[in-house]
């Protein structure tokens, strides 16, 4: 089964859906808000079209966060145009993700209320939201049609599992790991780096064609740190899933060959990786580049700071959102029947890890302007 069929969040609004388990991603979007507002305000001052402002959120997924960046953008457009005594244009906003994304939940459960809230902006032009299914590593829009591109936590997903993870004799080279890890052979590292370079270069190339000169782009990417060992590889959070699967292999619940041959299509780049590729493409000027760490269990209280959580609640919180994100990929390889057992084990592993260590993500936020 191809990556495009399995790289999507759990749909619907059930217990294990991304809709119900995306508070961490909400935290990341809110933390990045000042940078997003700054980029939108600069666009309004320097390159605001008179008729229609066209924007896209690539890798939008489906859940309560899907329209959150758009709301932040609209508030900034409204306030900036009022300060400039300038008429706000119509807004055409596209939600992009792979075709298997649950767009139905977005348009059925979220959009009606969103349009109702827009009524408070009496000076804002018409706002139209539409879906744009397709890979953001390929063509999505006509040339010179976009003014603003936003993406949060999408570009660490690869367009495919890297080639070269199997030897000439057919032996898996990343045996014992389901992702790039410290123990992975150098050839596996090279394969993952090469696939990310290919994909990110393609992303920049297509967006450079689709965006107008002076258009802005804000990207938030889950990355890795060369300075903090806790954020050096994505293995710490994904390796817990791998270790749980190894236990299930030992118990005869998972076939060893399925584990040995499985690899996530995920690569978390370093700041240097991203800078070099943007500079090599040459179509964009970097106007801001930020790096920051976030704990695995960030925002589990979601504004209720009086709540107290023990290690088991923290582990369950992390396990729930990891399940919402990874279950479609894992189920395609190992089947749906083991998912409850698998993530019960993973929850315990996260709880024990967080009791002793800091679970951290390393994030990169880049603002660019099209030359």
Characterization of the model:
This protein is α/β, with parallel strands linked by helices and 371 residues long. Helix content is 42%, strand content 18%. The protein has helices at residues 3-6, 23-31, 33-46, 68-83, 103-117, 186-210, 235-250, 256-260, 271-281, 311-334, 339-356, and strands at residues 52-58, 90-97, 127-133, 146-152, 211-223, 284-295, 360-370. Strands 3-2-1-4-5-7-6 form a seven-stranded mixed beta sheet, with helices on both faces. The two termini are 39 Å apart. InterPro entries: MeTrfase_7, MeTrfase_capping, SAM-dependent_MTases_sf.
Would you summarize the structure shown here?
Keywords: Magnesium, Metal-binding, Methyltransferase, Transferase. InterPro entries: MeTrfase_7, MeTrfase_capping, SAM-dependent_MTases_sf. The protein has 371 residues and is an alpha/beta fold.
The biggest beta sheet is recorded as: 7 strands, mixed
CATH class: Alpha Beta
Uncertain runs: none
Coarse structural class: alpha/beta
Beta-strand residue fraction: 15-25%
CATH architecture: 3-Layer(aba) Sandwich
Shape: globular
The third-level CATH topology is Rossmann fold
Give the spatial strand order of the biggest sheet.
3-2-1-4-5-7-6
Total tally of structural domains: 1
Task: Please name the fourth-level CATH homologous superfamily.
Answer: Vaccinia Virus protein VP39
**What's the number of helices?**
11
CA-atom Rg in angstroms:
21 Å
**Secondary-structure element order, N to C:** HHHEHEHEEHEHHHEHHE
Determine the N-to-C terminus distance.
39 Å
| Helix content class | 40-55%
Estimate the mean pLDDT confidence. 87
Number of strands: 7
GO molecular function: metal ion binding; methyltransferase activity
Pfam families: Methyltransf_7
Keywords: Magnesium, Metal-binding, Methyltransferase, Transferase
